[in-house]
Amino acid sequence: MMQNLTNEVAKRRTFAIISHPDAGKTTITEQLLLFGGVIREAGTVKAKKSGHFATSDWMDIEKKRGISVTSSVMQFEYQGKRINILDTPGHEDFSEDTYRTLMAVDAAVMVIDSAKGIEPQTKKLFKVVKKRGIPIFTFMNKLDRDGREPLDLIAELEDLLGIEGVAMNWPIGMGKGLKGLYDIANHRIELYRAEAADKYLELDEDGRLSEDNPLTKESIYDDTLGDIELLHEAGNTFDAAKVAVGDQTPVFFGSALTNFGVETFLEQYVKIAPSPDSHEVTLANDDKEELAADDEQFAGFVFKIQANMNPAHRDRIAFVRICSGEFEKGIDVTLARTGKSIRLNNATEFMSSERVQVSNAVAGDIVGLYDTGNFQIGDSIYSGKRKVEFQELPQFTPELFMQVTAKNVMKQKSFHKGMQQLVQEGAVQLYRNYQTDDYILGAVGQLQFEVFQYRMLNEYNSEVVMTPIGSRVARWIDQSQLDPKMSSSRNLLVKDRFDQPLFLFENQFALRWFADKYPDVQLHAKL
Ligand code: GDP
């Protein structure tokens, strides 16, 4: 057992980066990994090019990244802290995956393109994080380009997201006129594109440079001092309690591409970002309790399952967020859903570009368990006798549906295997026609189907034929109220993977028509 679990847990910083595509998430992640010594040169985390996000990119990105899909979790040490960055897929069709990952972090970093401000995907993801009540940090990126006024960007946080922004540093100029950052938190000026030795300039007690510095002769310097004064008088003041619950966001400026301001951000981040907090759990008697992160009992939940991370090994990994205690190789745990006891001999952590066997993982860390089919997304596991179950992960009701069959009837085996595994991963949802048992897939976005098809072929050598059913409104019906005769082409009757019946209505109109015809039947939007 670890000597001082409390101290170890306090070192953890586990977060995800949320942003709209192209805001610079990949570029920043790469810079952070550089500081963490995980990669040695930029370009290792292959950025997807702007524009269309094609299906083939999905796998190509993962391949070219080198750190591969393991980049789902990136772990490194920085200034005595252990950082875990959980990657979230950028495309909105994979929002389900992203939302689940956001349940496994202790904070979020929101990257905003300073020329574009808050974009739709950022707003959506922000809402999810906000609901969790965890700290949110903001990085205003692309300062090397002409962007919007910094004051304007801060105001937008409040206007569009309803969160107070508190500036930790402030740009001195922008675009071609970018001179540096006025670093409020560190009481210094950081020069843009300066040699390391001349990078930082001291500020006097009044927050000014000494008069003989050439920067003081430039008008942008006076403008910046004017802004700083305005921030002092009218801006928000840093309030740790507000930050902790996500009512205030510390704002950092920088340019990830030119590696400016990212390390300054990281330094502050490890200081003020939270270490793992307690989690609410349900006990065997249905009582709720807060399970402290440094409780000796090991407990965690599966937030992601990924098959074939390494096609050569055909493995399947369940990602577990440790919420309390310490993970040790060979630990015996109980799977709360089934009560089954499992010895965890084979686990991996995600330090650096290699997957390595777990040495010491504690609350806040993520471990990958080699899985032979024991785990499902959302599963809780725990050591010892006391049963603990974590909150359910959010479930999405699919809106798009496809009928799917194997092209080659001789290859049913690989078809079924691929289907089963990808469904367990949560890549798509599986339904079956109530009468014919035909497979029907459900997804939130079209791209999920395309990736499914691509992966079936590449990972399971199974060519699938997909017939679009189109957009449908899914409604569950109680088994006792079901009469198969209620089904028609406008409300297709299917069953989900728990064999629960539901109708896929052609549209809202068909749903209303049904409700009028069967007023006593209760329909539910979720299982
Ligand atoms: P993601 O989609 O959020 O992961 O964004 P990327 O990191 O892939 O960046 C999208 C594009 O913006 C790429 O062409 C980057 O080179 C570029 N980019 C990222 N950060 C900056 C920056 O600070 N300044 C400029 N000018 N471009 C940037």
Automatic annotation (TrEMBL):
Keywords: Cytoplasm, GTP-binding, Nucleotide-binding, Protein biosynthesis. One of its GO terms (molecular function) is GTP binding. InterPro entries: EF-G-like_DII (IPR053905), EFG_III/V (IPR035647), G_TR_CS (IPR031157), P-loop_NTPase (IPR027417), PrfC (IPR004548), RF3_C (IPR032090), RF3_dom_3_sf (IPR038467), RF3_GTP-bd (IPR041732). Its main location: cytoplasm. The gene is prfC. One of its GO terms (biological process) is regulation of translational termination. It comes from Amylolactobacillus amylophilus DSM 20533 = JCM 1125. This is Peptide chain release factor 3. Signal peptide: none annotated. Increases the formation of ribosomal termination complexes and stimulates activities of RF-1 and RF-2. It binds guanine nucleotides and has strong preference for UGA stop codons. It may interact directly with the ribosome. The stimulation of RF-1 and RF-2 is significantly reduced by GTP and GDP, but not by GMP. The keyword Nucleotide-binding applies. GO terms for cellular component: cytosol. The keyword Cytoplasm applies. The lineage of its organism: Bacteria, Bacillati, Bacillota, Bacilli, Lactobacillales. Residues 10-277 form the Tr-type G domain. GTP binds at residues 19-26, 87-91, 141-144.
